[in-house]
Design goal:
By secondary structure, the chain is of the alpha+beta class. It is about 15% helix and about 35% strand.
Length: about 600
């Protein structure tokens, strides 16, 4: 995202977002009809668990007849597959009798099923050189240990192929060893039992069932989305042992994202900060001149404190966010529109598109409410954790969901956006981990605020041409007068001495809809002299202010009127007269 348009991504991304849950899955049967042409593959009998309500069919095709529907979480066995379809047997009870049905299911909705059993602490000794594995199968060997290595175990696993494995600790890490490779032994006198206890912190990304045992059906409690849990034990690389509200059980890894409270990127932004208005003011005053001669944020520290208190948002974060997006309150959008966060500013039309706020305070309150209602709300469309976080992209620039967390996931395309805001927070108050280890979280969530009232009114005589049919009246190729653009992107125009309001112009791609001939805006000068002739020696007949819209003069062919040197624009003044301004201080808008 660009300096003043960083919410260009925000403005469009607000329209999107989807979240999975771990409790509701629809009836599934993926269309994989090409499997019918694949050859039949046989393998050792293996147990699987269904991950969705799944149709059992008479043949490996979605076009074949459904035998019955196997509920999610049930166990089936298979020893042959064809393409991505598995021929399975499913046994269930009906009227007190066991009934077995066979048929075909899509492999996308089954996973290998292991049975985990807790045991008394037992020591095992390797019979010979043995391999330790990442899971209770031979797919991924991790460590090779010599004969007579003593291992400690508190869990037995019957894997999907009917093999018995032990989860063992070795050099403070967990592995799995095949039962045939070890034999029971007594505890060595010189070797204490190894019990790895490295605790990790995780964000719960969906309403998540805490189960009594891994892959078990007994649910102890549901952990709400957005909760932080800690775990020091992992089973089969998939199940994490956690405690929530006094209940200890297992949760599935897919709905957890690990993070560490190492800096401001990972604090809960729903906590109250100890920052003072004086500290915020001092930081802004000491830095804004590196970006501009004027800042709308000077002495506005209390506005961040007030908004933080009103909406339950960390005031230090709010100040740092505004400072980052507005270059300490010196950006054109912040000065011209009191818009500190670039709301509404598309990359294609950053200034015209941006919302116009009546005051800096109104803008700060709007964003505080918006963040709390959406990005920091577990039920919000763009919630990925109530923290700044970070984003990770692949080589093609696509976000890797499993390696991204927090507001940075949706709010900004810049992978380092969260880190940049955290850096400002650090410079205002140095990070202290103890302050945020056991945070008091404000869980009051307001409604998402309506787009604030406000508009950009353009000077008289701004001419534009329709690039496509904009209405039944204003057709492609018609020239009309641009009058006003509101914060909700309605555009008032004049045509044939009548006024119309258009609501179908997308400012993210405005060039597909309109092209404006002569709208200019003053930049790079707090005041721009209007000259009687195209020269600095011409008489000073008026001035335009910074960010003021300017009507550039047009000839009869709707071409801009310039001097012979092409360095001056002829302009229309509000008093009906014309003058000249240097092109160096004019930016054309929506050309």
């Amino acid at each position: 995202m660009k300096n003043i348009g960083k919410v260009a991504v925000l403005s469009t991304s607000l329209l999107f977002g989807s979240y999975s849950t771990c409790t509701i899955i629809p009836l599934l049967s993926k269309s994989i009809d090409h499997a019918e042409a694949a050859s039949l593959v046989k393998f050792s009998k293996t147990s699987y668990q269904t991950t969705a309500n799944l149709r059992l069919r008479t043949s490996p095709s979605t076009k074949s007849k459904t035998v019955l529907t196997i509920p999610k979480g049930k166990t089936v066995t298979s020893s042959q597959k064809q393409g991505s379809w598995y021929k399975v047997s499913y046994t269930y009870k009906s009227k007190g009798k066991n009934i077995t049905k066979s048929g075909w299911v899509s492999g996308d909705y089954i996973k290998e099923y292991n049975v985990y059993t807790k045991t008394l602490g037992t020591y095992y000794s390797t019979k010979k050189t043995a391999r330790l594995y990442a899971a209770p199968n031979t797919k991924k060997a991790m460590v090779t240990v010599p004969s007579k290595t003593v291992l400690y175990s508190t869990q037995r696993v019957l894997n999907s192929m009917g093999q018995t494995w032990y989860r063992v600790s070795y050099k403070n890490k967990y592995y799995y060893v095949y039962s045939s490779d070890v034999s029971k032994t007594t505890k060595p006198n010189d070797k204490p039992a190894e019990t790895p206890k490295e605790e990790k912190t995780h964000l719960v990304t969906a309403n998540l069932n805490l189960r009594e045992s891994p892959e078990g059906t007994s649910v102890l409690i549901t952990i709400p989305k957005g909760t932080t849990v800690k775990s020091s034990e992992i089973l089969n690389g998939d199940w994490y042992k956690v405690t929530y509200r006094g209940k200890t059980g297992y949760v599935y890894y897919q709905y957890l994202k690990q993070y560490d409270l190492t800096d401001y990127r990972f604090i809960d932004l729903r906590t109250k900060s100890t920052v003072t208005a004086q500290q915020i003011n001092a930081y802004i005053a000491a830095n804004y001149k590196r970006y501009g001669s004027k800042s709308v944020l000077l002495n506005k520290g209390q506005a961040f404190i007030n908004a933080g208190n009103t909406y339950g948002v960390n005031a230090l974060y709010l100040a740092a966010h505004a400072i980052h997006e507005s270059a300490f309150g010196t950006s054109n959008i912040s000065i011209g529109k009191n818009n500190l966060f670039g709301y509404g500013a598309y990359d294609a039309a950053p200034f015209v598109g941006a919302y116009r706020f009546s005051s800096v305070e109104q803008c700060i309150n709007y964003v505080a409410q918006k963040m709390k209602a959406d990005y920091l709300n577990p039920n919000g469309t763009h919630f990925e954790g109530a923290m700044l976080g970070y984003k990770t992209k692949d080589s093609k620039g696509k976000t890797i969901a499993s390696k991204s967390i927090g507001m940075n996931y949706w709010y900004a395309s810049d992978e380092n956006w969260g880190n940049k805001i955290a850096a400002h927070m650090q410079k205002i108050i140095a990070f202290n981990k103890k302050t945020y280890e056991n945070p008091k979280i404000n869980t009051n969530y307001p409604s998402i605020p309506a787009i604030p009232s406000g508009s950009d009114k353009f000077p008289a005589g701004i001419q534009a041409i329709a690039k496509k049919d904009l209405s039944s009246t204003i057709k492609k190729g018609k020239i009309f007068t641009l009058l006003e653009k509101t914060n909700n992107f309605h555009v008032k125009v004049g045509y044939n001495q009548k006024t119309y309001t258009l609501s179908n112009i997308s400012f993210s791609s405005y060039k597909n809809y309109i092209s404006v001939y002569n709208l200019g805006r003053v930049v790079n000068a707090s005041s721009l002299n209007i000259r009687s002739t195209p020269s600095t020696t011409g008489e000073d007949i008026g001035d335009f202010k910074l960010n003021q819209y300017v009507s550039l003069a047009l000839d009869k062919e709707h071409k801009l009127m310039e001097d012979a040197t092409k360095k001056w624009y002829k302009v229309n003044m509000s008093n009906g007269k014309t003058g000249w301004v240097s092109k160096s201080y004019i930016k054309r808008e929506l050309p």
